[in-house]
Amino acid sequence: MSDLISGGSIDLDSCIERLYRREKLAESVVEALCTKAKELLIKESNVIHIKAPVSVVGDIHGQFFDLIELFRVGGFPPNTNYLFLGDYVDRGYFSIETMTLLTCLKLRYPNRIYLVRGNHESRGISQNYGFYSECKAKYGNVNVWNCFTDMFDYLTLSVVIDDRIFCIHGGLSPNVHSIDQIKVVDRFKEIPHEGPMADLVWSDPDPEKEDFGISTRGAGYTFGAEIVKKFLHVNDMVHILRAHQLCEQGFQVLFDDRLSTVWSAPNYCYRCGNLASVLEVSATGERFFNVFDAAPENEEYRQQQEQHNTMTEYFL
Amino acid sequence: MSYRFPSHDPEPLYSFTSESLGKPTVSRNGWSVYSSKRPIMTADEIDRATARIGIPMPEMIFGKNYIVVAHESGWSLGFNAVDALDLVVKHGNPEGGLVKVAYSEAWMNDKKKTSDEVHQVVKPFDWTYTTSYQGTPAPSKVTWEPTSQSIPLDKLRRPDPILFFEEVVLFEDELGDNGIAMAEVKVRVMEERLLLLCRLFVRVDDVLFRIRDTRLFIEFEDNTILREYTVKQDSYENVKRKIPHSARDSGLFLRDANWIAEKMPVIQTVTEKSALSSS
């Protein structure tokens, strides 16, 4: 067993300290963390009510250095309360380190850290978009991927801040008019292709539309201005906060300030050159986008890794 | 020299002069290569591009990136994202029908059962962003004619020193996490010749793969200019079957456009030649 576990309890502070240094934890420790996290998450409702002040974080996608940069900009836990809106894994180089750190922080500060499920927190997606391959490469097997994806099934679907701001990963669903309809969803499963659970993690706002639309890809919804107004009215709220879409400036506000997108992966995929932000909701309900750029460690890492690939240069 | 190009000004498309392209990154025998690598477009720029082109833009659009190959006589061929996207099928059904994600049918059926609301179906366009783009020519300076010549691969396989190499992404879309569409341009300049490759790579998970390659070859000595356009397409299943059995992680193969390009059948190849104007 690892020195991080003794008598069935995990030394979370030491885990967090090591993870801040980007050290990989032993497979047995990750397994124990996921088990503990499931025990904690199963008690959470599909709609968690929390109080401001809280800083809301959008997609991270395994960009570990940028998550640390976000903490430098917005304050390290537990000094700042955080609500993460999902898409922790895939695409970036450090999905494992990112997910392990967030799991430890959740276990250590369960009432100061909240983790919402994103569409990438699923077996189907994370098998194709990086997390699975990273687990195979860094642990030599997929046990860690299995542990984490089992844990994903327990993540909550939505959070309400001060009864006023509704937070989800993707967006609204034609099957959800009131938040009570979310509370009755059986969320402890792989994200299905269809239904309210799928829509909450997948759908996108469409500023050109009033109503719901069907994506031109043949599956998934877009939702317009009237839908947003109606939802806020029915549920007596003022704002919808979501992530899921890349914004060049790190955030985007739509529908007369009724909906915000927050994006927290700067220089997305290490090539987009975009900014990122964390949305700070104050105790009095003001919203402030704290914008930040990519962490300098990304460039150092790239230079370390760079092997002059002549095969690429001699393309045909 | 003038070159049509999306500018940073409020108006979407412009005629560009050699001054506005800046200094060439490399020059050889009267030939020059210009390139630019910048962040993705801002929301305002995307709105303008959307208005001009008339379809939703890809998630990541590098509208300020370009590679231009130009000769001092005025001949040029450039590659940029906005002109590439302008050739995506914008209305109705592209050839072979509109692609749907793998679970579309199930989704549509379930939707009928569970939701009672009437929905507007968005106007269809080719959301895979498949484009037949073969570059943006200098107006009235560039003509192409058919040729039986082909790009001399033997010369390009020689390990001649590369004086300049650049690679810029034009656009990329994750297809709502149903795959990838990516357009990328690479160029390499050697002492005696250059090769440029503009590749569109599309993967729709569990449905299909597509490649559209445009290659531009220039021999500096005699100003031979050849352009080869290749169309490849195959089903997801067929490509997947070619992954070696020993592979531990098949996902790595299905993300590797170079590996996939070699495994796919060629549907169409067209080679054309151009010449510098004699004036």
Automatic annotation (TrEMBL), chain A:
It comes from the Eukaryota. Residues 116-121 form the Serine/threonine specific protein phosphatases domain. The keyword Metal-binding applies. Keywords: Hydrolase, Manganese, Metal-binding. Pfam families: Metallophos (PF00149). InterPro entries: Calcineurin-like_PHP, Metallo-depent_PP-like, PPA2-like, Ser/Thr-sp_prot-phosphatase. Its EC number is 3.1.3.16. It catalyses: O-phospho-L-threonyl-[protein] + H2O = L-threonyl-[protein] + phosphate; O-phospho-L-seryl-[protein] + H2O = L-seryl-[protein] + phosphate. Belongs to the PPP phosphatase family. This is Serine/threonine-protein phosphatase. It comes from Myxozyma melibiosi.
Automatic annotation (TrEMBL), chain B:
InterPro entries: Phosphatase_reg/MetRdx, TIP41-like. It comes from the Eukaryota. Belongs to the TIP41 family. This is TIP41-like family-domain-containing protein. It comes from Myxozyma melibiosi.
